[in-house]
From TrEMBL, chain A:
Its EC number is 2.1.1.229. Residues 46-128 form the RRM domain. Catalyzes the methylation of 5-carboxymethyl uridine to 5-methylcarboxymethyl uridine at the wobble position of the anticodon loop in tRNA via its methyltransferase domain. Catalyzes the last step in the formation of 5-methylcarboxymethyl uridine at the wobble position of the anticodon loop in target tRNA. Has a preference for tRNA(Arg) and tRNA(Glu), and does not bind tRNA(Lys). GO terms for cellular component: cytoplasm; nucleus. This is tRNA (carboxymethyluridine(34)-5-O)-methyltransferase. It is found in: Cytoplasm; Nucleus. It comes from Paralvinella palmiformis. The keyword S-adenosyl-L-methionine applies.
UniProtKB/TrEMBL annotation, chain B:
Gene3D superfamilies: 2.20.25.10. Pfam families: Trm112p. GO terms for cellular component: nucleoplasm; perinuclear region of cytoplasm. The keyword Cytoplasm applies. One of its GO terms (biological process) is tRNA methylation. The keyword Metal-binding does not apply. Belongs to the TRM112 family. InterPro entries: Trm112, Trm112-like. GO terms for molecular function: protein heterodimerization activity. It is found in: Cytoplasm, Perinuclear region; Nucleus, Nucleoplasm. This is Multifunctional methyltransferase subunit TRM112-like protein. Keywords: Cytoplasm, Nucleus.
């Protein structure tokens, strides 16, 4: 075979068109150099870069494969999102040279070779194909279920037929019409209208038109296969023309149940899922498939459709559904090569059926940051800061939450019990007052009694303490208090058995909203109707009305002390972060949760607070803040306790989610938020 | 664990258990400690109790004595009755043994007078 047939024709007389070709060729080489930092080879090779033959100018992979396969065995075709070039690799140099001679500078025939008119390919050889980062993955967000081929073509046809779109001219006059043309798409509602202004449905105003009977077959199948727990009662049909889309959104938590079903008819599309932490997963939703959003994918990730006319997808995502275009024996590419390759498809009119079940009562999800049921009125800034800060650090599942608390609450208290108890002699005055005010003969349960400092107040009532820590229970027992070991999420008492309950500085150790609610539900369960409970938690706000909490004030006093005593400046400060990190005994979660610097303001709501354990009894005098840890010392071990510190209004809101409980009093007490709640009398 | 506490306890926290009440008592060590008698306190506490359950519990560990199993109508003013009730409620203590869930038979240990009602992961 002849030596290189092609050379850039410099110094040779050129025709007008040749000169034009050369100019364009040089420009495409420049583009490539800019994008890939790649110099083109003067020598021929197996690898050809195809200028104007990329996803960036709407050339599809299949078209390239068809064009180039005429000249030999195409080993690989590489396309990149938004780039106006592609790489084609032949198995031999001879083949690539043949392709070069015929295609370079040629305007491709439309529609035989390319679906687009007037595209001229400019080719160059490259020594190697640049490394390639996969930007489109086929991972799905957690909780997302994709069921392909859920409806047949004939059923698809019937479903599309059953939607009666109102005439668009009549739209404005007919207020009752449930269909409307939104900016980006056509929409029609069944069962209940989804009102875009409030992003919710009006539960008291069901529509005359229920879910079409044609859908029954599909819904029955989904229920029978246990993909959904009950039948939906709301349907929204969206119709998207190519180029139309829907902005990223999370379906309002409180509006619907914990699953959402989306049936795709007419055209496949890429749906973009985005996590608040920045993760982006494009999901190819095939024609006639059913997408079920549950869990995180329903509650945390936004989903949307970018308004455009075509989508870029991994080759094998498409290959699963379509016979490969170049599947002609030895010229086809191997499956391995296809794994991380991209191509593009044109969108057609897509009609989606979104089935949902209208929710009665508040949302019970585990994702308060995204949940409208959990962030009302007063705590707008709470939700904002939570969304930004605390997302990735919090446990995702209840099991993970339990593990976090085991490591960073239960085991820590077991370890530090004696030292902890030594620092906690004095009852908080307002708690003591509450206990003293109870009528004689009352039964009081202290859920999370610690060393029992509230079990000795008011001899005229009967008190039972309980704590998760066996060692703290022993400390109580040594003082002759009645106490037992139990978990606040499972209080071992019969319903309605006590007149009073207190839970002081306990539920801030629970790591999810859901668990904090469950703890309060337990307390309310054991209270008799009319019974009262005092709940206190550590406050995010340690300075209110320019008044610093004791927790913050302690640091000043302490630092003065250490200066006086040993003359050195604060070598024993207990707020040294380095010390905390190196001395920690339980590090497993520490890298994801922030370690708080003792005696400073909180900047996060979920954090690990160091406890510096002292081997002997301390001379610590006790104040009223929750945290009264002792003076530091480099040799003593440090333990990290998990805390969720509460913002203004948050505790009240939590109580509002407990059926049968109402807040009778709420106050801030020296760095702690407190509520007194009452179990409402049964009507 | 005092018998007044036992009167409040339930194992309905175990998955699948409906009432979990009353818990059976298997006592290997029962102690009697003197506690100051406060008749007013006892009189006010009694209506909050499941009286038959208290008697049943006291009987099961052999400490019912001659306390009537039926709550007498004038208990509030009957000092002798209140004294007996006080003894059973406040002075008897199970130091070692188990409480037993009436529905599943699950045992909850009592050691050094401290009952442990923690559940395993699979019981919640």
């Amino acid at each position: 075979m002849a030596e290189p047939v092609f050379r850039v024709p410099t110094g040779i007389k050129l025709s007008k068109s040749d000169r034009k070709t050369l100019k364009k060729h040089l420009r495409s080489q420049h583009t490539l150099f800019r994008h890939e930092k790649l110099n083109l080879s003067d020598e021929v090779s197996q690898h050809i870069v195809v200028g104007n033959g990329g996803l960036g100018n709407n050339v599809r992979r299949e078209e390239l494969v068809n064009i180039f396969s005429k000249y030999g065995s195409v080993v690989d075709v590489l396309l990149k999102p938004r780039k106006p070039y592609a790489f084609v690799t032949f198995s031999t140099v001879q083949e690539s040279v043949r392709a070069f001679q015929d295609i370079h500078g040629r305007t491709m025939k439309c529609p035989e070779e390319l679906s687009l008119p007037n595209v001229t390919f400019y080719l160059s050889f490259v020594k190697e194909v640049p490394g390639f980062e996969l930007s489109t993955s086929y991972l799905h967000p957690p909780g997302l279920i994709l069921l392909e081929d859920m409806v047949s073509e004939s059923y698809e046809h019937k479903l599309l037929e059953c939607v009666k779109w109102e005439n668009s001219e009549a739209e404005t006059s007919e207020e009752s019409a449930n269909s409307q043309i939104l900016k980006h798409r056509r929409v029609k509602h069944y069962g209940y209208e989804f009102i875009y202004g409030i992003n919710n449905v009006d539960r008291d105003k069901p529509l005359n038109e229920g879910i079409p009977i044609t859908c029954e077959e599909l819904l029955t199948e989904l229920v029978n296969s246990h993909h959904i727990s009950c039948r939906p009662d709301q349907l929204t049909v969206n119709q998207y023309l190519p180029g139309q889309g829907i902005p990223p959104h999370i379906d309002t938590h409180s509006a619907f149940e914990d699953w959402i079903i989306s049936l795709s008819l007419g055209s496949q599309v890429i749906m973009d899922f985005r996590h608040p932490d920045g993760r982006h997963l494009p999901v190819l939703v095939p024609q006639r498939s059913v997408l079920i959003m549950t869990g995180e994918s329903r509650y945390v990730w936004t989903h949307g459709i970018t308004p455009r006319k075509s989508d870029v997808v991994p080759v094998n995502a498409l290959a699963q559904q379509q016979p490969r275009l170049n599947a002609d024996g030895d010229r086809s590419e191997s499956a391995d090569n296809l794994a991380d390759r991209l191509t593009m498809f044109q969108r057609n009119t897509r009609t989606s059926f979104t089935f949902r079940k209208v929710l009665r009562g508040p949302c019970k999800c585990k994702y308060p940051e995204q949940c409208d049921s959990k962030q009302k009125s007063s705590s707008k800034d709470v939700s904002n800061s939570q969304t930004k800060e605390n997302k990735s650090s919090l446990p995702d599942t209840d099991k993970e939450a339990a593990m976090l608390e085991k490591l960073h609450v239960h085991e820590v208290y077991e370890e530090i019990a004696d030292h902890f108890s030594d620092t906690r002699h004095k009852a908080w005055p307002k708690v003591a007052e509450f206990i003293r005010l109870q009528t004689p003969g009352s039964v009081m349960i202290d859920a999370g009694c610690g060393n029992g400092k509230y079990l000795g107040i008011n001899p005229d009532i009967y008190k039972i303490g309980c704590d998760r820590s066996t060692r703290l229970c022993h400390i109580c027992k040594d003082q002759n208090f009645e106490v037992l070991v139990s978990d606040i999420l499972a209080l071992p008492y019969r319903d309605n058995c006590c007149d009073v309950a207190i839970s002081i500085a306990v539920i801030h150790h629970l790591s999810t909203w859901d668990r904090r609610v469950r703890a309060l539900e337990e307390i309310v369960r054991i209270l008799r109707p009319g019974g009262k409970a005092l709940i206190s938690v550590w406050a995010f706000e340690q300075e209110l009305c320019k008044q610093k909490s004791n927790y913050l004030k302690e640091s000043r006093i302490r630092n003065k002390h250490s200066q006086k005593k040993d003359g050195s400046v604060n070598t024993h400060r207990d707020d040294s972060l380095q010390e905390d990190m190196s001395g920690s005994c339980l590090e497993q979660r520490a890298n994801s949760l922030e370690v708080h610097v003792n005696r400073t303001h909180f900047d996060k709501q979920d954090l690990l607070v160091p406890w510096h354990k002292k081997p002997t009894s301390s001379d610590e005098k006790c104040g009223t803040g929750e945290e009264m840890s002792t003076k530091g010392n480099h040799s003593k071990p440090v333990f990290h306790r998990f805390y969720h510190v509460f913002k203004d209004g948050e505790l009240n809101e939590l109580v509002q989610h407990i059926p049968g409980a109402r807040v009778t009093e709420a106050y801030y007490d020296k760095g702690n938020w407190c509520v007194i709640l009452e179990k409402v009398l049964e009507s | 664990m005092k018998l007044i506490t036992h009167n409040m306890l339930s194992s309905n926290i175990i998955k699948g258990v409906k009432n979990g009440y009353p818990l059976g008592i298997q006592a290997t060590d029962v102690q009697v400690n003197e506690v100051d008698f406060n008749p007013d306190f006892v009189a006010r506490i009694i209506p909050k109790l499941q009286w038959p359950i208290l008697c049943q519990a006291a009987e099961s560990i052999g400490h019912l004595g001659d306390l009537p199993k039926e709550l007498i109508s004038d208990f509030e003013s009957n000092e002798e009755f209140l004294k007996k009730a006080h003894h059973i409620l406040m002075e008897i203590e199970v130091k070692e043994g188990n409480l037993v869930c009436p529905e599943t038979g699950r045992k909850f240990p009592i050691s050094n007078g401290i009952l442990n009602m923690l559940l395993n992961e699979d019981e919640v």
